[in-house]
Amino acid sequence: MGSVTQNFLKFFRGSSEQSAATAAAASAARISRRSSGLGEFSRRIAGQEGLCILDLGCTSAANISRFTNAGHKVCTEDVLLAAQEPSLVMVGEDGKQTLDATKFLADNLSYSAGQFDAVLCWDVPDYLPESLVKPVIGRLATLTKPGGILLAFFHTRDAGPDAPCFRYHVADNDMLQCQPLCGAPVGRSKVQPPLFRLQRVFNNRHIENLFKEFASLKFFLARDNVREVLVVR
Amino acid sequence: MDTPKPLDPSRSEVAHIGKSVLIKGELSGSEDLYFDGEIEGSIDLGSHSLTIGPNGRIRANVRAKDVVVNGKVDGDVSGSERVELRRSALMVGNIVTRRVVIEEGAFFKGQLDIQREAAKEIPKEVPRAAAQSAAASTPATAGAPQGTLVDTKR
Questions:
Q1: Cross-chain CB nearest to B109 (options A26, A71, A78)
Q2: Chains A, B: CB pairs < 8 Å
Q3: Lowest mean pLDDT among A127-141, A162-176, B30-44
Q4: Alpha carbon A231 to chain centroid, angstroms
Q5: Which one of B72, B114, B115 makes the best mutation probe of the A interface by having the most chain A beta carbons within 10 Å?
Q6: Integer distance in angstroms from the first to the last C-alpha of chain B?
Q7: CA distance to partner chain A, nearest, from residue B88 (Å)
Q8: Are the CB atoms for A156 and A227 separated by under 8 Å?
Q9: Helix (H, G, I), strand (E, B) or coil at A206
Q10: Where is average pLDDT lowest: A153-162, A170-179, B57-66?
C-alpha cells in the first residue's frame, strides 16, 4: 500500500481546499431514502458473520459501525476521490487528456482476488471518469468472490446533469441516509458546488455490458430517477 | 504555607512529543504518549495509549492499547483495545482492534478488522510457564482459562 498511501497523503497535504470540501461535505444535511436494492443486499448477507465487505463510497462511520458490529470485516476506499489525483492525468494519442487507468489500478483497489463477499459500489460508475469505468468494474469482478454481491446505483436520464453525488450511510436494512457531497463555498455567494459531476447516464444495456463478467443482475426501479442494481458474481 | 500547584494531568501522565520533532526509526515505550510530530519507522507502546495530535504525521506501523488519531497516519494500526479516528484524521492503512470509533469527516482507506475479545492478561504474580501449563491442561469449554481466547460475543 506504500505508493498508494504516499499519493493520498500528498494529495491531501497540499490541499486545504480539499479539506474544506470534505468538511463541507461532512456538514451537509442528509436525506433519508428507502432502497430496495439495499434491502436485498441486507437480506443476502443477513445471518452471516465474518464477511469481507468493500465500501467504495466516501468514508462513512455509520457503515463501518454497522458492518463491523455485525461481525464483518470492512474495507473502505473512496475511488472517486482517488480519481482526482493529478498524477493520473496523461495526454492521449489524439491530444486529449485522459486518466491513466493502469496507474490508477496500481495505486487503488489493491486486494487479493476473490477477497470480497459483498461490494457497495453505490453510484460510483456514474461519476467516475470515462477511462476508469471499465477497468474499475473489471477489477471489482476480480475482487468479488464467486457468488458475492455488488450493489450499484445508476441515474436515469431524467435525473439531469446536476444530479448530486451522495455519501451513502446505511441507516437500516433497507434505509439509506444520503448526504450530498459538496465542494467548498465559491466566492461570497456561499454556494457549495457539487464535489463530483455526473459523467454519463447508463441505460440497461450499458449496465448489462458493464457487468458482463458477473453472473446475474437484478434491477430495482426507484422513484427518484435512480435504478438500483444488485449484481451477483 | 504555599500549597503545591496541582499538576496538569495531561502533562504529568502523558509523555509529549511536539510538532517540531522528526523521528526516523523505532519508537517504543511503556507509558502513554501524545505524539504531534513526524515519524518514519514504527511505534510500539504495548499496553499503553497513543494519541496522535492534529500535526502528527505517522509513516509507521503502530501498536498500542488505545490509539486516537487526529492527524495523518500512513501505516497499519493495531489497537488492542480501541482505535479512534477523529474528524481531522486521515488514515491510510489497515486497522486491527476490538473497538473502533470513527467520527464523521474522518478519512479512512484500508481494511478494518474488529477482533473478538482479546486474550485475558495473565496476572503478573502468576509465572507465565505455570499459566501456560494450566491453560494447556484445562479444556477449552471449561470457562475462560488464562491465556486462551475468550469470545463473549458468541
A1: A78
A2: 69
A3: A162-176
A4: 15
A5: B114
A6: 59
A7: 9
A8: yes
A9: helix
A10: A153-162
DSSP-H helix ranges across chain A: 2-13, 16-27, 36-45, 61-69, 79-82, 101-107, 124-127, 130-143, 204-210
Tell me: the pLDDT tens digits for B60-91? 999 999 999 999 999 999 999 999 999 999 99
Residue A230: C-alpha distances to residues B5, B55, B103 (Å): 64, 42, 29
Residue position matching grid coordinates 439495499: A38
Closest residue of chain B to A110, computed from CA coordinates = B110
∠ CA A73-A53-A169, nearest 5°, is 105
Rounded distance between C-alpha atoms, residue A163 and residue B79, angstroms? 40
Mutate to test the interface with B, among A6, A8, A56, A195 (most CBs of B within 10 A): A8
Let me know the angle formed at the C-alpha of A217 by A211 and A218, rounded to the nearest 5 degrees: 145
H/E stretch holding B62: strand B57-69
Report CB contact under 8 Å: A12, B72.
yes
What per-residue confidence (pLDDT) applies to B82? 93
The pLDDT assigned to B68 comes to 97
**pLDDT at residue B120 in the model:** 43
C-alpha cell at B87: 474528524
Burial A101-139 (b: 16+ CB within 10 A, else e): bebbeebbbebeeebbbbbbbbbbbbbbbebbbebbbeb
> What's the rounded Cα separation, in Å, for the pair A35 and A172?
10
Looking at residue A186, its pLDDT comes to 65
Q: Residue B142: is its pLDDT beyond 80?
A: no
- Residues sharing a CB contact under 8 Å with residue A51, sequence separation 6 or more, in sequence order: A45, A72, A73, A117, A118
B interface test, pick of A3, A4, A5, A75 with most B CB neighbours within 10 Å: A5
- Determine the straight-line distance between the first and last CA of chain A, rounded to whole angstroms: 26
Give B119 to chain A, closest Cα distance, Å.
18
